[in-house]
């Protein structure tokens, strides 16, 4: 299936590993020019080299999304490197733990304010695109009670609501805004791999809640992102697509 994405330009925050890198790879495979950011220089360079194998332009920069000046500077730098922006994927997450002050600050500064600032900075370039698409990576934690991750869940819920508000407000500029709410996604070095090693009871209990009997893969989120970013989804905006193997059903 031709997604009609070849030649488009995408900026992906938190794109050096996990879901972000999977989205970057999936878009690059469709011929999209890519910019990614992350906090670790070594991980970022490895991701850049991996993405370069697709043959499209790849730009990568170290950036702390919680730093307002840094994220605004990164997005402007990415737009200059790519010659514009057609797709913005706000994927970076601080994953603030529990209901602690630290948890709230991480979730607010990265997941919410980082998304707001990246979008605000990218908007002038997106408004010039013929097929502009913004995708926020939310979570099923924002769609139901989240006892272990109260701060994270509440901020993801805010992001889901903000997706609707942005979609309404940006429709006049033909900028589509959607969100993806992943369920529990397992990948090397990720949260669920860590829990499998350090807290197998929580890992097993969570696995038992997934009707498909397994954790999700980053590529399954990436496939959804490719669709939402593409003209195939040209009449879809303000929506949150849940990708969780039925996890919320239980």
From TrEMBL:
Signal peptide interval: none
SUPFAM superfamilies: NAD(P)-binding Rossmann-fold domains
Highest taxon in the source lineage: Bacteria
CDD domains tied to this protein: SDR_c
Family: Belongs to the short-chain dehydrogenases/reductases (SDR) family.
Protein name (record): Oxidoreductase
Source organism: Salinisphaera dokdonensis CL-ES53
